[in-house]
Amino acid sequence: MLKEFKTFIMRGNVLDLAVAVIIGAAFGKIVTSLTEDILMPVIGRIFGGLDFSSYFLVLGEVPANLRGSTDYAALKKAGVPLLGYGEFVTQAVNFLIVAFIIFLLLRVVNAVLAKKEEAPAAPAPEAADVALLREIRDELRARRT
């Protein structure tokens, strides 16, 4: 069983998948930082707030020690039911950024593949036996005339 597992793990597609997951996680962190640290503050500023992810509606009782608080994380940690639409918008922007970058990446890959298909393939060299048979045929034709 251990030998089968080792064979399974050493397959190329499993290793490729592992590398893709690791790169995807790192890429996700970059996109999260781009969204939270660069884009959302600008969007928040346009809509009148500096931290867009802190936009929420309180749906239940707020504990006495947190009354008047606008700290989304603290309220959520205290178990207050919240409708965090700002956080949802942040995650939606994250998704759109990732989807757009993947779209651009696939577009480039497809263009490269299309270019390879358009390039005329060099004709394969003629096999020696075919060339010899062709010479014999031509010689026989020449003798008939």
UniProtKB/TrEMBL annotation:
Keyword Lipoprotein: no
This protein's record includes keyword Transmembrane helix: yes
Membrane topology, record value: Multi-pass membrane protein
Name of one Pfam family that matches: MscL
Coiled-coil regions listed in the entry: none
Main subcellular location: membrane
InterPro entries: Mechanosensitive_channel_CS, MS_channel, MSC/AndL, MscL_channel
Keyword terms, alphabetized: Cell inner membrane, Cell membrane, Ion channel, Ion transport, Membrane, Transmembrane, Transmembrane helix, Transport
Ranges that cross the membrane: 12-31, 88-106
Superkingdom of source: Bacteria
Compartment(s) of residence: Cell inner membrane; Cell membrane
UniProt similarity note: Belongs to the MscL family.
Record-linked PANTHER family: LARGE-CONDUCTANCE MECHANOSENSITIVE CHANNEL, MECHANOSENSITIVE CHANNEL MSCL
UniProt subunit comment: Homopentamer.
Reported function: Channel that opens in response to stretch forces in the membrane lipid bilayer. May participate in the regulation of osmotic pressure changes within the cell.
The protein's name in its UniProt record: Large-conductance mechanosensitive channel
Species the sequence originates in: Sphingomonas floccifaciens
